[in-house]
């Protein structure tokens, strides 16, 4: 009697590399100094997703619904002395891929401000250079205009003084003429009076 048996082969594709992101946006940290992370990987046959802190596995997940990606959240406390290494691992029976968490990039609440400051730096430099380029011609124009005004003011002052001096001479001449005329009139009047008496 012959015994028959079937051999079935299952070919598993290598797993894809997991991606870590901040669930609340890049650099977003709550007031309690907690960082909410999410590790995501493309799902596949026998794929498992795990979080590790150093060599300690914190949690693991898998999903038989291959149409949706695998997601595994992680919440960590941030401290000045937090030097722990966090790693997200995707694995199946034939392969595994790891992604290390960059705490400074994803969980530092100052990183968002630093990135914004760095992005604003070229804009501020450009604005400063533009203002400098504009201000130099304006300053030169104002200086030139001011010099012209001062020169014109000096000319007006000189002319006014000259006219005033000339006017004073003319006034003196008119006064002399008037005095002479008055004296002549008085002489004529006196002469007439003397002639009448004689």
TrEMBL record:
Transmembrane regions: 120-142
Key words of the record: Membrane, Transmembrane, Transmembrane helix
Keyword Secreted: no
PROSITE patterns reported for this sequence: IG_LIKE
Presence of keyword Membrane: yes
InterPro entries: Ig-like_dom (IPR007110), Ig-like_dom_sf (IPR036179), Ig-like_fold (IPR013783)
All residue ranges annotated as the Ig-like domain in the record: 18-104
PANTHER family, sorted: CD48 ANTIGEN-RELATED, LFA-3
Protein name: Ig-like domain-containing protein
Organism: Pangasianodon hypophthalmus (Striped catfish)
